[in-house]
Fold this sequence. Notes:
By secondary structure, the chain is of the alpha+beta class. 33% of the residues lie in helices and 32% in strands. The protein contains three helices and five strands; from the N terminus they run H-H-E-E-E-H-E-E. Strands 1-2-3-4-5 form a five-stranded mixed β-sheet, with helices on both faces. Strand 1 and strand 2 (66-78) form a beta hairpin. Helix 1 crosses helix 2 (35-48).
Amino acid sequence: MAPGVKGRHKFEPLSYAVLGACIDVQRELGVHCLEVDYQRALEVALEERGLHYEREVEIPITYGGKVVTTRRVDFRVWDDQDQLLLEVKARARLLREDAEQCLRYLQQGGYRICLLVNFGEKPLGRRRLVYTPPEDTSR
């Protein structure tokens, strides 16, 4: 869908830019590298696209309103319009647990979008997970 077309979500341009970076990294490195190799290459690819990022972002995990632990998502990526989380894998296939991990990051961290990419699949394995917080009906 072209930019400005009705129905387009504001997060799509950033998602497409990040996925393009991931595809370029896989084209150059192939499917048999370590996860950390893909992460390091992604840093270069994201910078080339003018995207801002932070590595190993801590997401607080809460229970009863108190932080009980933290988990780390591989990347937080943003541009002038939006931000998203990026979780990187390098295995034969994505697992249900990988998506559940991303959903936990979204819910606990207050984020809306997480891209889950798997460099071990050809073509690139990818899922875009969207979290919409429940509406507050207590008013």
